[in-house]
Amino acid sequence: MTYRPARRLADIEPFHVVELLTRARQLEAEGRDIIHMEVGEPDFPTPEPIARAAVAAIQGGKTLYTQALGLPELRAAIADFYRERYGVAVSASRIAITNGASGALNLAFAALANPGDEWLLADPGYPCNRHILRTYEGCPASMPVGPESNFQPTPAMLCQYWNKRTAGLLVASPANPTGTLLTLAEIEALAAVCREKQGHFLVDEIYHGLTYEIAAPTACAAGDDIWVINSFSKYFQMTGWRLGWMVIPEAYGRDVEKLAQNLVLCPSTPAQHAALAAFAPDTIAILEERRAEFRRRRDFLAPALEQIGFRVTARPEGAFYLYCDCSNLADDSFTLARDLLEKTGVAATPGLDFGSNAPEKHIRFAYTTGVPRLAEAVERLGRYFGR
Questions:
Q1: Which of 36, 80, 235, 320 holds its CA 20 to 30 A away from the CA of 293?
Q2: Strands 200-204 and 227-231
Q3: Which residues of the chain have pLDDT under 70?
Q4: Which CATH superfamily is domain 8-45+283-384 in?
C-alpha cells in the first residue's frame, strides 16, 4: 500500500496536551502519583439528575435516531435557557444540537469556509479551532493578542489584519487558554466590523456559566447574524457525552441541517434526553456550588504560582485555567512541561498548543482538581524551582 495522505494533514499538528496526558497515564500505570493540571476537563462527575435522566431514557427505549438538528424539546429548552439566563429571545428553530462544541464548529466551517478563505483567530487560542478550519480548506490567520487587550482581539486589530481573502472572525469568551472575557460592548464592536467587511462572526461560548466576578454576556444579544457555539461539556460537566449546540443565523438553518444529515445523522439520543435535565433547578444548584469551588481553586492557585515565579499575565475571569508567563523560570515551556511531569509528577500544558505567539514563554495550569491536590502541586513545583 502506498502511503499518500491528504496534503492538508501537513498543516494539522498533534494536540500536544493529549500526548502529554498519554505520557502521564503511562507514569500512573508505573505507580507514579500524577497531579493532572493539563486537560481542560472538570473533575466533577456529571450531576446526578442528568445521569438519572440518561438511564431512564435508555431503559425507556429512547435510543433511536432523532432529527438531524436534535430533539425539538431540547432545542426549546435551550431557547428557554437563553431567555431566563440572559434575557435574550432566541428562536428554537435557530438552535442545532451538535456533537459537542467541536461538532458545532465542524458544521459551521463546513457551511461557511471556502478553499483559500482566511479566518481571523486570536493567538493564543484553542488549537483545534484552526485545525478544524483547515480540514474544510480554510486558512487560519493568527492575530497575536496580549495583556494590553486582555488577550482578546479589538476592532483595530480586525481592521489591521483583515484583507480581501478574509471571510470572518472566530473569538472565544471566556477564552482558552487565558480565561478572559469580552464585554457586550466589545462583542458589538467586533460584530460591527465584521458587518462592515461583509464577513462572518463566530463566537465560542463553551465556558459560559464558569465566570467568577461578572456574568459573561452572550453574543446572541449583539445580533441574530452571529453564529454562537456552546456545549454541555464544561459548565454542565458532560465532557464525554459529546453534546453541544449552535445558534445559527436564520438564513443558514437549512444549510446546517443538510450538513448534519450527511455528516452525523444526529447527536447521541440518550445524551440529548439526559441534557433535558441539565436546566432543572436542582441541577443548576449543583452546578453553581461547583462554580464556587472553581473560584476557590483559582483564588488559591494564582497567588501561589506567582510566589514561585510564574507571572499570571491574563485576568482569569472565567473557565478554569491560568495562563502563565514562565520565561523567568525556563527558556522553553515545552521542555519545562515535560520535565515537570517526569520529575515532579505535575502535568501542565505548554504554550506550544495554543499558537505561535511566544509559546515558549507560556504554560497553562488547569485548576480542575481540588485545593489539597493543588497545594501538593504547588509544593512540588516549589521544590523543583528551589523556592
A1: 80
A2: parallel
A3: none
A4: Aspartate Aminotransferase, domain 1 (3.90.1150.10)
Select from 382, 314, 312 the least CA-distant residue to 346: 382
Q: 23-52, pLDDT tens digit by residue?
A: 999 999 999 999 999 988 899 999 999 999
pTM above 0.85, yes or no: yes
> Range(s) for CATH 3.90.1150.10 in the chain?
8-45+283-384
Q: Are 145 and 357 in contact, with CB atoms under 8 Å apart? A: yes
In the DSSP assignment, the letter for residue 318 is B
What does the alpha-carbon distance between residue 130 and residue 140 come to, in Å, rounded to a whole number? 5
145: CB partners within 8 A, 6+ apart: 122, 123, 124, 151, 152, 153, 157, 357
CA distance 247 to 252: 10
The cell 462544541 sits on which residue?
101
- For the stretch 95-112, pLDDT in tens is 999 999 999 999 999 999
